[in-house]
Every structure is written in C-alpha cells, then in structure tokens.
Amino acid sequence: MSVRRPPMPSMFAAKLACLPLVLAACAGSGFQSAGASSEGSPSPATQPRPATTMPAPASPGAASPSIASTFCPGRTWPPHPLGGVPGITAVSTDRATVQITNGTDRTYYYRVSGWEPVQFETCRAWGELERQRGPILPGAAESVMVDTAWRQAGIRVTIAFWEQPCGEACAVNPVAAMVVDLSPVEPASS
Q1: DSSP H helical segments within the chain, as ranges?
Q2: Strand-pair partners of 115
C-alpha cells in the first residue's frame, strides 16, 4: 500500500511566497521605488535628504569622549627601566638617523622604537612603533633610520638591549634601555 503525499512546493514558489514579507519590510524601512506616491507627491526616495557625514576618525593621541583618558595601570613612561650598557652609545646625528656604537667585547641585541600615547579600549598607554631590531656586534656601529616627523610629533625614541635574541613575542625585559633625543638637524639630501 503506498501513501500519496501532496507535492512539495518548489524553491521558487517558497521564495515567491516570502516576497510580500520582504516588500513590507522594505516599505517600513523607508525603501520605496522612485516615482510618485498615490497622492501625486514625490516619494521619500526621490525627495532630497540632508547630507549625512561620518565623524572624522580620532587621532591616536585623542581621547574618545566615552572613554576615560587615564593611563593604563603600569603602562606609563618610560616603557622600560632606563639605564645604559657601559661601552654602548647612541646619538641622533639628524632628525632621521640614530647611530648606535657597541664599544664592548660582546654582541647585544637591540630594538629601536618610537613611543606615542595611544587610546586603548578602557585607558591610554604608550604604543610602540618598532623601527628596527637586530644584533650589534662588538666594535660595530649601526645607523637606524626613523621617521623625520617623529621629532615634531613628539614621539619619544628608545633603544632597548638584550643579551639574547628577543623576537616579536618576547616578554623578557631588556637588560638596558636608553632614550635618544632626536636631533633638530635636517637630514642631508641625497
């Protein structure tokens, strides 16, 4: 004995059945076809609308009006304990160049970074703009180029040193860190 089932509606028929719901939702949300309404006046879709603008993005240093502008606990300046390594010097020769010289008898690993206040979700902290990292061999000198706008923008520059390589995910504090004041001298044009 076989039971006969009523035919299933096709996918097209199911979509067609939903069309009145979609049209009603569109009409309720202000989407209407262009043209005249039944009263003969232009439909809302063809009437001029006031211009809407998106708010300009805030600069990283600007505090959001809804977020406290206090610094995150433990994230104040300086980002590392400051102190040099005897025999290592760093100087800014112009506003785009930091010269590091290793006068010791061992290799150190350095990271040159700029620091600027950044608004995080609930507080402000110093955000790192890493510029360059690498080893500096005994007796070697390294020239590191930084952004020429950093000096005018007030971005502070540090050089941190480790005795072992310290990659991007490194959470080990440096053995030393120094602040380098960028020179006001313009870089030589090439």
Answers
A1: 11-28, 150-153
A2: 128, 156
Range of the domain at 176: 88-180
Write down the residue that tokens 């096709």 correspond to: 10
Q: Which residues contact 181 (CB under 8 A, 6 or more apart)?
A: 92, 157
Distance between CA 64 and CA 150 in Å, rounded?
Answer: 23
pLDDT for 125-143, tens place per residue?
Answer: 888 899 999 999 999 999 9
133 within domain boundaries: yes
**Is residue 154 assigned to a domain?**
yes
Predicted TM-score (pTM) above 0.90:
no
Q: What would the two tokens of residue 66 be? A: 């809804």
Q: Specify the number of domains making up the chain.
A: 1
Q: Is 30 contained in some domain?
A: no
pLDDT digits (tens, 9 = 90+) for 55-64: 333 344 444 4
Residue entry with tokens 């040099």: 84
Name the pairing type of β-strands 88-94 and 97-102. antiparallel
The CATH number of the domain where 153 resides is what?
Answer: 2.60.40
Phi then psi for 20, rounded to 5 degrees?
-60, -35
